[in-house]
Amino acid sequence: MSVLKRLGVLGVCLMVTGPAQVYAQDMMKHVDLTSPDMTEAEMTRDDVEAAIAAAGPDAPADFTGKRLSGLDLSGVDFKGAVLRSARLNNTNLTGAKLDKAVLDQAWMLKADLTGASLKGANMFQTQLMRAKLDGADMTNARVASDLTKASMKGAIFVGANLSADMRNQSMGLMRGVLKSADLEGADFSGANLSRVNFEFASLKGANLAGANLMGAELGGANLSEANLAGADLSNADIQDARFLKVRGVDTIIGLDTTKHRKSAIFD
Questions:
Q1: Cα(50)–Cα(249) distance, rounded to whole angstroms?
Q2: Distance between CA 141 and CA 120 in Å, rounded?
Q3: How far is CA 248 from CA 35, 129, 190, 231, 260, in A?
Q4: Cα–Cα nearest to 232, from 221, 219, 243, 248
Q5: Which of 92, 128, 127, 131 is CA-nearest to residue 7?
Q6: pLDDT digit string (tens) for 195-228?
């Protein structure tokens, strides 16, 4: 059985039998991230651009399962392309256009997407740990991805949906995981962040105006100088979170229902 097939079978088993949010971490324990399957490319940049050029409006470029790790794909236009389960670990995608691209279950560990456009992209179960997305635009994107320790300074998530998928919890709680991520100055205005994990993340100066943070995990997060005007924090866990010089604090919805509010720091 190929490595890709083994990963697929393993992923399904973990999603069905494992507890919420554990499947990805457990999967990582069983994957050799130093193997050629996860670190080498089977195509060149020229091959990628040729495949995109040959695609049409009714048949978008399809890179499903392709190994593209380590390539310099900066500035490449992947608009509408299918990159499901592709491996793009340590790939340079700075300034790339991935609007409406399908990146479900793709491996993008430590990928550089600085300034990339991912408007309306679909990133479901995408592995983006320690990736760099500073200034990336994920407006209206679906981002139920693992972005643990990722750098997303000034990233745009306007109207994006990072919330938990409550329809099929037998597969685990699929949601955005942004633990210990750097989100300083990021724009989450109007975003759906329900049940998203922001534990120990830096949201300093972030724009969360009108965002849905119901049930979000904000333990240890730094929200100093953030804009929370009209944000809904109903049932969110704010244990030890910092809310110094927060804007719009008087208009926060559900603040009285938050968990561990007494341990949170307000000025």
A1: 52
A2: 4
A3: 49, 31, 14, 9, 21
A4: 248
A5: 127
A6: 999 999 999 999 999 999 999 999 999 999 999 9
